[in-house]
Design goal:
Helix content is 40%, strand content 17%. The chain is of the alpha+beta class and 502 residues long. It has 2 domains: 7-117, 2-Layer Sandwich (Beta Polymerase, domain 2), CATH 3.30.460; 184-501, Cytochrome-c3 Hydrogenase, chain B, CATH 1.10.645.10. Helix 4 (194-202) packs antiparallel against helix 5 (209-224) and helix 5 runs antiparallel to helix 6 (230-258). The chain has 16 helices and 14 strands. Strand 10 (160-166) and strand 11 form a beta hairpin. The protein is globular and about 60 Å long.
Length: 502
């Protein structure tokens, strides 16, 4: 035990795992709740547990966005204990504690929503089955339930949506996930080769290959005490902004489809294609698989690539600007987006949303400015903040971030660094280390944490996708809206099922 409440670390910093202060649970809880009390610049980026002999070690990581620090503390508890929950006092911790309960059987005496989170393969209570999920119910002759999923039309991933409606009006939506659980975190421990682990990172979320792989390689290099050169930071930053640009463009296409604006759907969909095709030209894969590697890059970015990317933008920008002017001046489109799917500042703060799902309502959450990684410390990044929390705000953020990303990329293209030939060398993690990596993916904050044992092997690998936080915001957004508004609300968030389930 220690009297120091927490240790301050920076993004992508590795420390001795023994340096993390350990407290009894009461002090651990009060300290972290105190950190979060009344300060919107602080939020929980990760809170997880792992087994230590017959006990559970809890690690809590609170980010201070103003000070650009992450405050880490721990507690060792018995899995048979019944604990007072953090969630009863701060709902930011709701899903974290549900996962801890599901995985380790720790009981919480006052958690308001202690339901299964993922139906993980390593859950403690195997009698909890996904087909018996305990949905919230209302006994009423006036209200009715509408179930959607888990199997959907087209190629959408599986998830179950249970609406309670009064006529056409949605009173409540509960979203049940857990169908996509692949045991990714456990596979990071089972796989021993760096290439295998990198491939796992590339497949955490199919549309966020660059975001999750960058988080992994930044973390791995920190664990190994390796300092990447400027060219690696350059390639990763460039790829992150290209991935943001491609996905925002594709989502604008999807939003147009959901409001029956066929022209916008077609044009934005077409505009996404040359962006992902450029990834194919650069690294041989349209989703950027194979591009990001720890300690090296197998596909250096050249001046020829820079010229080609300028050509892509010369074709992209005029059409993007024209269709965007049409969309944002079309009364029928605006009527579907404005004041639809509203989530207030107070709600996103209470939920703990990140990325666009926070910035849509005036909550500034953007790792590029608060905990900058790679070259974002050299970019004067100004997060795009809106305040109405509706579909229109979420679409405006995408529109503006597309222009912002193009500007950042053009700035990077002014001076392409020299890439050295990839070397074959071994990156060996240091013994008994803890490291955390934060990356602003296109959806929002990605967090990877890892701890090594006394031999330098991984003993815990913890992943958090922004969708982990943001699904609850979607549930809140549809309340008091007509059920016909659900598709546009859903697409305006564009969340990941597998990113939640892991």
């Amino acid at each position: 035990m220690t009297t120091t409440k927490y240790i301050n670390i920076s993004n992508n910093q590795a420390i001795a795992s023994t340096d993390i202060p350990e407290h009894n649970y009461d002090l651990f809880a009060s300290g972290n709740l105190e950190l979060m009390s009344g300060n919107p610049a602080r939020h929980c980026v990760n809170y997880f547990g792992y087994r230590v002999a017959d006990k559970i070690k809890l690690i809590c990581c609170i980010a201070d966005d103003d000070l650009h620090q992450i405050l880490v503390s721990s507690s060792l508890v018995d899995s048979s204990m019944e604990l007072a929950s953090f969630t009863a006092q701060n709902h930011n911790f709701e899903k974290f504690e549900r996962e801890i309960h599901e995985n380790f059987g720790i009981g919480y005496i006052d958690h308001p929503w202690l339901k299964p989170l993922r139906y993980a393969c390593n859950r403690t209570d195997k009698d909890q089955r996904i087909e018996n999920y305990p949905f919230y119910e209302v006994d009423s002759e006036e209200l009715h339930e509408v179930g959607v999923g888990p199997i959907h039309a087209g190629i959408i991933e599986p998830g179950h949506f249970r609406f309670i409606c009064n006529g056409e009006q949605i009173m409540h939506l509960e979203i049940q996930l857990g169908y996509q659980h692949r045991g990714v975190e456990q596979l990071f421990l089972q796989k021993e080769k760096l290439l295998e682990r990198t491939t796992l990172a590339e497949n955490i979320v199919g549309d966020t290959v660059v975001g999750h792989t960058t988080a992994f390689v930044n973390l791995w290099e920190s664990l190994c005490g390796y300092t990447p050169d400027y060219s690696l930071h350059y390639a990763r930053t460039l790829a992150l902004e290209l991935e943001r640009l491609a996905n925002h463009t594709g989502d604008l296409s999807g939003v147009c489809a959901d409001i029956a604006y066929q022209l916008g759907n077609s044009v934005y969909g077409r505009l996404r294609t040359p962006i992902v095709n450029f990834f194919q030209e650069w690294g041989g894969n349209r989703l950027a698989k194979g591009l990001i590697r720890a300690g090296k890059i197998n596909f250096p970015f050249t001046n020829e690539h820079a010229k080609r990317l300028v050509e892509v933008f010369e074709a992209y920008e005029p059409d993007f600007n024209e269709i965007t002017r049409k969309l944002f001046n079309l009364p029928s489109a605006l009527s579907r987006m404005e004041k639809t799917g509203v989530v207030s500042y107070e709600e996103v703060l209470e939920i703990g949303t990140v990325g666009m799902a926070a910035r849509m309502s005036g909550l500034n959450r953007d790792i590029r400015s608060s905990h900058p990684n790679n070259l974002y410390g050299n970019i004067d990044h100004k997060p795009i903040i809106k305040h109405h929390g509706d579909v229109y705000s979420r679409v405006q953020i995408r529109k503006t971030e597309i222009k912002q990303s193009i500007g950042y990329i053009k700035g990077l293209l002014q001076e392409v660094p020299e890439f050295k030939k990839p070397e074959d060398f071994v990156l060996t993690p240091q013994k008994e280390k803890f490291a955390i990596s934060l990356v602003e993916g296109w959806r929002g904050e990605i967090c990877h944490c890892a701890i090594t044992d006394e031999a330098g092997n991984l003993k815990i690998y913890k992943i958090k996708d922004p969708s982990f936080h943001n699904w609850m915001a979607l549930s809140q957004s549809v309340r008091n809206n007509d059920i016909s508004d659900f598709p546009i609300c859903n697409k305006s968030f564009s969340l990941s099922y597998c990113g939640h389930d892991l």
